[in-house]
Specification:
It contains eleven helices and four strands. With 308 residues, the protein is mainly alpha-helical. The protein has one domain. Strands 1-2 form a two-stranded antiparallel ribbon. Strand 1 and strand 2 form a beta hairpin. One of its GO terms (cellular component) is plasma membrane. It is a multi-pass membrane protein. InterPro entries: TM_pro_TauE-like, TSUP/Inactive_protease-like. This is Probable membrane transporter protein.
């Protein structure tokens, strides 16, 4: 069933868009990621202009993340105080990111910049995720020996920083600055790339801040909801690149998919799931890189920079 998208100015298959939203919803529920790092490049592949894909996918992230976080609230695995600190940094970062996005759009370079960012981030994150997951699977198959005492020396600089706050749900007493900076980076990425930032935030919360894994996913989703909503609003007001029809289709698929994702997360092995996600990320990265390297079918365009 073909449907016309008024802002994107293209016709797409409605069931295909619903399926993409559902896929990202499943990933949101399983891994605590908003899913924008996959939905945005997938929208590129079906013919959605990058500027519209970035702005509209941020809107879809809100719904899939909200649907997924309800289950985490029921399990009491959300650190609200940590979430608020991350959110404070995220709102500032998203504002700065939209300013950069608007500047790139005005000089006609936003499409190239967004695609290059995706190739870089997806390549690095996918490769690191794949290596870590394969190592985890290998360790799980080895006989269990005596455990070595864990060391936190690599995080000593975080514990030495000033302005400390006690985060009781996470069992941490650390400076407010590291989570603020993580939130700032994720907010900027949300605005420029249309991502929730969970694929960066989740590892940072575990390995950098030392948060327990059981509260990381829910806390990440809490921050993603508000940052993605704020980013969508800024894009809608300043760029007019949020396609409502596309957003509704992605929302419907995302909300349904997130419920299945939370169920899958409880039944399947985490290491195997991460390998599959890493392979999917690398596949999307390769497809984007190939499109950048291949010669386009149309060498010239009559559209001036800025789209006027």
């Amino acid at each position: 069933m073909q449907i016309y998208l008024p802002i994107a100015e293209v016709s797409v298959n409605a069931f295909l868009i619903l399926g993409l939203g559902g896929l990202v919803g499943i990933l949101s529920g399983m891994f605590g990621v908003g899913g924008g790092f996959l939905i945005t490049p997938l929208l590129f592949f079906v013919g959605i202009p990058p500027a519209v894909a970035v702005a509209t996918s941020a809107n879809q992230i809100v719904a899939s993340s909200f649907s997924a976080i309800l289950a985490h609230f029921r399990r009491k695995t959300v650190d609200l105080k940590m979430g608020m600190v991350l959110l404070a940094g995220g709102l500032v970062g998203s504002g700065l990111g939209v300013i950069l996005f608007n500047y790139l759009k005005s000089i006609g370079q936003v499409d190239l910049m967004v695609r290059l960012c995706y190739v870089l981030f997806l390549g690095v994150v996918g490769l690191l995720m794949f290596i870590e997951s394969v190592n985890a699977i290998r360790k799980s198959r080895q006989p269990i020996g005596p455990r070595k005492p864990s060391s936190r020396r690599h995080k000593s600089w975080i514990y030495a920083m000033p302005v400390k706050i006690r985060f009781r749900t996470s069992g941490l007493y650390i400076s407010v600055f590291p989570p603020l900076l993580i939130g700032l980076l994720v907010g900027a990425l949300a605005a420029v790339m249309g991502v929730g930032g969970g694929f960066i935030m989740v590892p940072a919360m575990i390995y950098l801040l030392g948060m327990p894994t059981k509260v990381v996913v829910g806390t990440s989703l809490f921050q993603i909801i508000f940052v993605a909503a704020f980013t969508t609003m800024l894009h809608a007001v300043t760029n007019h690149t949020v396609d409502t029809v596309l957003a509704v289709l992605l929302l419907l698929g995302g909300v349904i998919g997130a419920q299945f994702g939370t169920q899958f997360a409880m039944r399947l092995k985490a290491e195997q799931l991460r390998v599959l996600l890493a392979l999917l990320v690398l596949l999307v990265c390769g497809k984007l890189a190939l499109e950048l390297l291949l010669m386009p079918s149309e060498l010239y365009s009559l559209t001036r920079p800025g789209g006027h």
